[in-house]
């Protein structure tokens, strides 16, 4: 059995659905602070609990002794908020994660797939970003994720923990069947914000700067479909069962799209005009962030299946269903 911590959230719920489709036995653990109970399939056992409470984690492993692997998604993930409230991030993303690792080991569970981030790299030295790029995060969110990668290194050496750390670029898109999708409160991700304009939920989308060193002056980012991410987690679990070495892997498309290209593609997909206004740059926004996932392809046999049009189309189908009135 695989325990998915944070399995009612955006990436977690898509991974749970994918694992079930592949015939895996899954249990979800989530405090529902940002997740949605209705995103968990009816046939999947659900444990409402918080990593801050050791008794809740003990309860999970005591009730499901067949757990052999953990996938850990539970984290706060707003970069701006992490700068304003670093204590919240260090407590939840670091202290609570260590409590999870300690409880796992106490129950002889040594396999974990960890949801990391490209934010551990900070400003890249080269593009596309490979795993060789120095990890110098520039905000507390990125630092908390890097800290847990380092903790897992030490736990592996001392206690036999086996892990795969997956460093995502920009997760996007939604379930092909439209059953689950991207639903954050508040929403901060570009594609759902753009679709909010298309559907009439907001008047305009803000473009933070049009004077970057890119072909159209707007920031370029690497977008990866959430189902492609789910597939990578499935492959990472399989890897842990067959190998003894740990892995740290980037997950991205290897292609970048500018903010204006996202808006233009959304207009084509929705066949609706999307108004935007150009505002000042945000502090700390690099011009380009594009990841190389060659190592994930080589080691896991992982290959992204969804292009930008499919990412936006699945997101649009979900958006209309959820917010279309």
Structure, explained:
The chain is α/β, with parallel strands linked by helices and 325 residues long. 40% of the residues lie in helices and 17% in strands. It contains 10 helices and 14 strands. A 7-stranded parallel beta sheet has the order 3-2-1-4-5-6-11, with helices on both faces. It has a 3-stranded mixed beta sheet with strand order 12-9-14. It has a two-stranded parallel ribbon with strand order 7-10. Helix 1 links the parallel strand 1 and strand 2. 46% of the residues are buried. The model has no long low-confidence stretch (mean pLDDT 96). This is UDP-glucose 4-epimerase. Keywords: Carbohydrate metabolism, Galactose metabolism, Isomerase, NAD.
Keywords:
three-stranded mixed β-sheet; 10 helices; 325 residues; alpha/beta; single chain; seven-stranded parallel β-sheet; 40% helix
